[in-house]
Design brief:
Length: about 475
């Protein structure tokens, strides 16, 4: 595995490739070839990792297994009291397609894991579901045939999500070099022959890795990709002018590829999309997971800067693949912050909260269910990341509120549901101390301060009705098999 370290605006930033490169494992995520960095949001990549913001989580404290259970006792620190302000005067709308996921693993010979979680996926209240990745691009180990397309669209409609369908750029279903005509044929099949009404399509997967993966010549660059992207998009829109194109789905070479792509292809791209896997599997500690929110926010702001500089600043921005690491090989998922652990679930909480505050079009995690630990299901058993996503997707509401005053080591995100006249707080306590949090909310009929008692190393969802009635609290900690209503 080759690692390339690079710096972005003054500090090491970890933007690793997606989990959908080549893999020899029959139960892998859509792959595992990796190029990226090992930096941990300004903390240390070895030993005890310090969360960005300064709160250290002792390496001798809580340790969780890959299934999310607790393997050692957690020493509890002293009670911390804090007061936060929540302002509802200028709410930000939540994108109607915000909550997303990736449809994987569908390969029949690997057990078609995703088919077994359709019923439980309905409970996630997903709004966006992507069928893509290196397997769909290379037709490996088997082709993503029209039958598989049918299954995907049916699954997406069943769970209530808008489908995002990737057309292959490397190989077509027959296994030969993919062409613009192949892309047009796929649009014809889904929207003309089958009348599925699929609105969102992407073209290829992580083109910034094509050269290093020997899928294209080593000289392949953003200009070459844009030429192909333009031809494919034109052919697809000839079939159905109403479709929306998502791209370029970069793995991590944002600075190298995105400016050129946006300058040349920005006008034909409806949603700008990249992938983000911040950490090497060898450094997936709990403190590193907890410290990623600060560098992640910086990444999003930097992407917006690149978009604005290319004249595409008003376009929606999406993350179409994300997880704590690109490599969910079970043999490597042995650390207390590895995919599948409770700390990795809290990483999802911070990732969702920052993404909501930064007004992303959508965030689609990799993936629903697979043999590797990246799946939000382990077979059909929900992992912590599933429970966290479910809490947010079902409880956040349609508006984002402003929160200030959160203490060190604690993140607080606030949503609002005007229809049901309530605001909801999501408190991510990444410290080993219990928290007494006083909440002062303005801009809603609820004026009396509320005090929340938050467990150490936990996620709490607190719904505050406008009429001043009792707060409904749901707690989720590593000692729990699932969130519990207080």
């Amino acid at each position: 595995m080759r690692l390339e370290n690079f710096a972005v605006y003054g500090f090491a930033m970890s933007m690793a490739i997606g989990c959908d490169g080549a893999s020899s494992s029959s139960n892998s995520s859509s792959g595992g070839s990796a190029t990226g960095t090992v930096a941990v949001g300004g903390g240390s990549a070895t030993g005890t990792v310090v969360a960005s913001g300064g709160t250290a989580v002792a390496s001798g404290g809580q340790s969780t297994t890959s299934s999310g259970g607790t393997s050692t006792a957690m020493s509890t620190g002293p009670l911390v009291a804090a007061t936060i302000a929540v302002a509802a005067e200028s709410p930000i709308p939540v994108s109607p397609l915000f909550f997303g996921q990736n449809y994987w693993s569908w390969v029949p010979s690997w057990g078609d894991a995703v088919a077994s979680v359709e019923t439980q996926t309905k409970d996630l209240n997903l709004k966006f579901l992507r069928a893509g990745g290196a397997n769909n691009d290379k037709q490996s180990p088997v082709a993503f045939s029209y039958t598989e397309v049918d299954d995907f669209v049916a699954f997406a409609r069943s769970v209530g999500a808008e489908p995002l369908l990737q057309v292959p750029l490397i190989k077509n279903i027959a296994g030969t070099a993919a062409t613009a005509q192949d892309a047009a044929d796929l649009v014809t099949y889904v929207n003309i022959t089958k009348s599925y009404g699929v609105k969102y399509f992407s073209i290829g997967n992580e083109p910034d890795l094509y050269g290093s993966q020997n899928l294209m010549p080593a000289t392949y660059d953003a200009v070459a990709f844009c030429g192909t992207f333009t031809a494919f998009a034109a052919a697809m829109r000839t079939v159905d002018p109403s479709i929306k194109i998502v791209g370029p789905d970069l793995s991590w070479k944002y600075d190298e590829w995105l400016p050129s792509f946006l300058q040349n292809c920005g006008n034909i791209t409806d949603v700008v999309a990249v992938h983000r896997y911040p950490r090497d599997p060898t450094v997936c500690t709990d403190g590193g997971d907890y410290g990623d929110s600060v560098p992640y926010r910086s990444v999003l702001k930097h992407l917006r800067t690149l978009m604005a500089a290319a004249g595409q600043g008003t376009k929606p921005l999406a993350i179409t693949e994300a997880n704590v690491t690109w490599d969910g090989d079970p043999a490597k998922s042995t650390l207390n912050g590895s995919p599948g652990t409770f700390p990795a679930g809290l990483w999802v909480a911070d990732n969702l909260g920052v993404s909501l505050e930064e007004q992303l079009h959508s965030v689609s995690y990799w993936s629903l269910s697979e043999g590797w630990t990246l799946g939000f299901f382990n077979g059909t058993a929900p992992r912590p990341a599933y429970h966290v996503l479910k809490m947010f997707s079902n409880g956040f509401g349609t508006q984002v509120l402003t929160v200030t005053g959160a203490p060190t080591g604690v993140s607080v995100y606030a949503g609002r549901d005007p229809t049901n006249a309530k605001s909801t707080l999501f408190v991510v306590n990444k410290t080993t101390s219990p928290l007494a949090l006083t909440v002062n909310i303005t801009g809603t009929p609820r004026t009396t301060p509320t005090t929340l008692e938050v467990m150490p190393v936990s996620l709490q969802m607190a719904a505050l009705p406008d009429d001043g009635s009792a707060v409904v609290v749901t707690n989720y900690a590593a000692t729990m098999t699932a969130p519990q209503v207080q």
